[in-house]
Design goal:
309 residues; alpha/beta; Arc Repressor Mutant, subunit A; D-Maltodextrin-Binding Protein, domain 2; 3 domains; 7-stranded mixed beta sheet; two-stranded antiparallel ribbon; 10 helices
Length: 309
Amino acid sequence: MTHVLFDLDVLRSFSTGVALGSYARAADKLGRSTSAVSAQLKKLESQAGTPLLRKAGRGLELTDAGQTLLAYAHRLLEINDEAAAAMRGADLEGWVRLGLQEDLGESLLPGVLGRFARAHPRVRVEACVARSAELRERLALGQLDLALTWEVAGSAPLDHAEQLVRLPLQWIAPAAPAALDTVWWTELQRAGPRKSREPLPLVMVDAPCPLREIVTTVLDRAGIPWRHVFTSASLAALWAATSAGLGLSARPAFGLPPHVRVLDRTGTGLPVLPQIALSMARAQAEPEAPVARLADLMREAVRESAIGR
């Protein structure tokens, strides 16, 4: 029996092309010619023994086999990169104090910190999950080395910060359609949000919260009545209230749990919400090696997650 040995370099081209939506852009990012990447894809399909891509309009989309191989490619490349990082930083030692907001903590911490801990077992990481205002204060006081925060228009710029991605705020609803079998949802569907006899019920983070102010300002400008039906400092509590059908919430579609979903605005009359930015700030312009390495992993994880949205 002949064993197929997939070339990691080829798998990286395949994965990058899918992530960027274009193999020409993948070639540019990887420093290769488009023809070289095309040859790699032909080699990969030959090894797989089945088509991995098919035409869809003017572009390409993955076949079922392509979806399967992409999942394995991600795992193989992650292990390879983790091993390479471990060899480069085998003697890395130190301490990193990391700050995140709750939705980022749930979606990023398990994968990124697991990879970091395996590659750099001598580095101690302390993670703090808090709201943006507290993370900003801790950075200013020198209590954090690295922090990821959601930033809105008008936010004071953080020192040594970079914007990682911009994402639109989305209306968040229960994942189970039966949870929307409520008086307010029926009235919203019947009359629309402006003429509804039921003010739009909102499930939001406790004040002060910039996202809460953004949402209510957008609704006021649209002439849509609203009321707070549930507030909490805990994001998990907000998702529980939203999934129960108490009202709608609003967050970026990042790290959503399975019992809530982004609401399709079609036919609802709900306004479009603006974008907000996710920034990463460091306490020092030139951080120590452990902080810089964790920052690299965080940056990569955020951008990979955002590409899929």
